[in-house]
Amino acid sequence: MLVLVYRKCSTCQKALKWLEEHKIFFEERAIVDENPTYEELKEWYGKSGLPLKKFFNTSGMLYKQMNLKDKLPEMTEDEQLRLLATDGMLVKRPLVIGEDFVLTGFREKEWEEKIRG
After folding, report:
1. CB atoms within 10 A of CB 33
2. What is the mean pLDDT of residues 90-108?
3. Of the four, 39, 52, 94, 114, which is 20 to 30 A from 85 by CA?
């Protein structure tokens, strides 16, 4: 399982603590240092079954500065994926890539169901 995080993010810190407490093995990747590629995002989005908007860090400063709330509805999925691939700060985190699931953000109940099964 791959977990993309931003270590300074309090939600990511909670998520990592949760994984460690539940003794769940995972590979950690710094989302800013190693931004997800267009190809990865396209694959993960397809696998997730989630709306593409769930992959955006809508509470982030960059999202707000770029006025994406108004711009995203007019962009194609391909344009949105390409935009996400430009900066890890645009991507909702933590981003968890499992064998048969993709999770955006940390919601303990959802993680309990998907990760611990």
Report:
1. 9
2. 97
3. 114
